[in-house]
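name: query_chain
kind: protein
chains: 1
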Amino acid sequence: MRNEKLLIMLETAIMATLAYALSFIKFGGFWAQGGSISLVMIPIVLLSFRRGVKAGLTAGLIVGLLKLMLGGSIVHPVQVLLDYPLPYAVIGLSGLFAASGAAGKAATMTRAVLGITLAASLRFLCHFSSGIIWFGSFAPEGMHAAWYSFLYNVSYLVPEILINSTIIWILLSSRASLLTPHSFSR
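structure:
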């Protein structure tokens, strides 16, 4: 039992580190006030499906805190929560779609895509709220802050959903065992 907890802690740390590293691989963009299309969700989603929501939430929280500490911008304490720890932690909720028993390959892959969609939707709500409250001043004249925040955040999160879902689909179609937790054995 103790070894199992250690293994989960190690996997969580490794996946958080991998997710943070993948956040630097970005696909083109014009987002001057933050946001990018990256592969940050993949390790957190895999961990959340493999080890549970708690591990996924923890890894996401670590990633968000790393992003804040190593280059985040602070406007207000609530903005910090909405732009860093919270939106990355909610990626861990993707594990809510993990099958509790044996599931077929197609069902598992579909659940993973649904998990990514849930995670990105919750991330969107965090960034959207922050955008309305603190970054609405960047909206072009005559454009409502909510509409600006919606368009701004959808412009990178929808492509991120599609790219991450495609990569997860490819990974799981060739190696579904990525979601199977392994026990600590001697």
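note: Helices lie at 2-22, 41-51, 53-69, 77-83, 85-89, 105-134, 145-174.
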